[in-house]
Amino acid sequence: MVGPASGPVATQDQQAPRTLEDLYREHRMRFVRLAVLLVDDPATAEDVVQEAFTGLHRHWGRLRDEHAALGYLRTAVVNGSRSVLRRRRTAREYTPPHTADARSAESLAMLSAEHQAVVSALGKLPRRQREVLVLRYYGGLSEAEIAEATGISKGTVKSTASRGLEAIGKLVGGS
C-alpha cells in the first residue's frame, strides 16, 4: 500500500513507515562514497547523489518498498556518475575553433601579400559577412548551402556576400 505523502505504508506487524527523509539520513553518505569512487570529486559526487534523491522524490508515490527505493538510488547514482564522466570526456576532447586573428607567423609568411591583405580584411568584417564569404570562396559552398549552414535566407546570403565583397575591396584597395 502507498500512503498519501509518506510513501510506503507498513502493516501492523512491521515497523513504522519509512519516509524519504529517513532514507536520506541513513543512506546518503553511502551513496556519496559510491559516487566519489566513480567520479573522483566529492563536490560532483554530492551533486550526483542529490539528483538521485530528487528523482526518487518524484517517483516516491509509486515505489513498492524501501528495497525498491535503494535500488532506484543505486542505479540513479551510477547513471548520474556515467553522465558526469561522459561530459568530462567530451569537454576534454573539444577543440575550440580557430579565431580569425589567431594566425601564426609561419602561415602569414607563406601567404602572398595580396592573400595576406584579404585575410586581414576578412578579420575586420562583421561576423555574418565573414562567414558568408569564407563559406563561399574558401569552402566552395553554393548560396543555398550557405543559407542552410548559417540559418539565413538565400537572398540574405546574396546581399551579405555583396556587401562583404565591397567592404573587402575598400579595405584591400585602400591599404
Describe the structure.
The chain is elongated. The protein starts with 19 loop residues before the first helix and ends with a helix. The model is unreliable at 1-13 (pLDDT under 50). The chain has two domains: 20-93; 105-174, Winged helix-like DNA-binding domain superfamily/Winged helix DNA-binding domain (Arc Repressor Mutant, subunit A). By secondary structure, the protein is mainly alpha-helical. The protein is 71% helix and 0% strand. Helix 1 packs antiparallel against helix 2, helix 1 packs parallel to helix 3 (66-93) and helix 7 crosses helix 8.
Number of strands: 0
**Radius of gyration, in angstroms, nearest whole number:** 30 Å
Helix fraction, binned, reads over 70%
SSE series: HHHHHHHH
Mean pLDDT: 81
Largest sheet: none
Based on helices, strands and strand pairing, what is the structural class?
A: mainly alpha
- β content, as a range? under 5%
Structure characteristics:
Arc Repressor Mutant, subunit A, 2 domains, elongated, 175 residues, RNA_pol_sigma-E_actinobac, mainly alpha
